[in-house]
Specification:
274 residues; alpha/beta
Length: 274
């Protein structure tokens, strides 16, 4: 069977077999987006104040899943680059926001003070995109200031003047901005200072390390976050030690399988009402 692979570290798609499965998958993905062929799961984020196991989420990250009828579950690591390469990313992002935003707005109306984070590619960024996202959030009934846009740690595009202007427009429109996976790449604190952020998310590679260098790296982020008014999220919390370490390092929020795995809306509803 032909297989379409993604090599993230090289930023390329590789086709194996006697056909071009990447093009075939792209066609199927393009059809799946408007047809509801992708599912949304929500991974909870928790405040790390106090001690013990955090109980009620304060925000959720919307994660897209593609259950392909022939190939089974296709990882976002694979189909997101596919969507970017074949010009589907804007439609995909709009579909995720529409479905996740409607659900979180319903939770908010039910009395739960819950934020929503959605991922976005810098390839989408434009003034029109910002205006569309802000208008859509309002139309969905999301409470003001509750939507955060997550962008991966890739400083080069984010620091372009044109992109900086878009990010500043997003903040002016009341959207939160988060840098995802901080510590997985080469971003420096001085680079972050250039961005109008509301949140930074510490990559699991630092969250799960228990050594002086990791402590120092996280401490520098936390110190700058306090100065700039950013919230700090520890990602990849998978053990009690990870949770204790995140609290000791003064991270504001935590996310990871130890606290809560990605789950469908019904399970998240049960968690909220527990």
């Amino acid at each position: 069977m032909a297989v379409c692979l993604v090599l993230p570290e090289m930023g390329i798609l590789v086709s194996l077999g006697d056909m071009d499965p990447c093009a075939t998958l792209a066609t199927e993905l393009r059809a799946a987006v408007p047809a509801g062929g992708l599912s949304i799961e929500f991974q909870p984020l928790f405040d790390l104040e106090g001690s013990g196991q955090p109980e009620r989420p304060v925000a959720v990250e919307a994660l897209c899943r593609w259950n392909h009828p022939r190939f089974g579950t296709i990882s976002p690591v694979q189909f997101i680059p596919l969507a970017e390469t074949h010009g589907i990313i804007a439609d995909l992002g709009a579909a995720v926001l529409a479905r996740a935003g409607a659900q979180v707005a319903a939770w908010q109306r039910a009395g739960y003070d819950l934020g929503l984070s959605v991922n976005a590619s810098p390839s989408e960024f434009s003034a029109t995109w910002v205006d569309t996202v802000a208008e859509r959030a309002a139309d969905l009934g999301l409470s003001a200031g509750s939507l955060t846009i997550e962008i991966t740690e890739s400083p080069a595009p984010q620091l372009l003047p044109s992109v900086l202007a878009v990010l500043e427009r997003a903040r002016a429109a009341g959207l939160g901005l988060s840098i995802d996976d901080l510590g997985a790449g080469d971003t420096t604190i001085s680079m972050l200072d250039e961005l109008p952020l509301t949140e930074v998310k510490i990559d699991r590679s630092l969250t799960q390390r228990d050594d002086a260098d990791a402590d120092e790296a996280v401490a520098a982020v936390v110190e700058q976050a306090r100065h700039n008014g950013w919230s700090v999220v520890a990602e990849g919390i998978e053990t009690q030690d990870d949770l204790d370490r995140a609290r000791r390092r003064r991270c504001d929020r935590g996310q990871g399988f130890f606290l809560g795995k990605p789950m469908p809306a019904a399970e998240l509803t049960a968690l909220l009402s527990a």
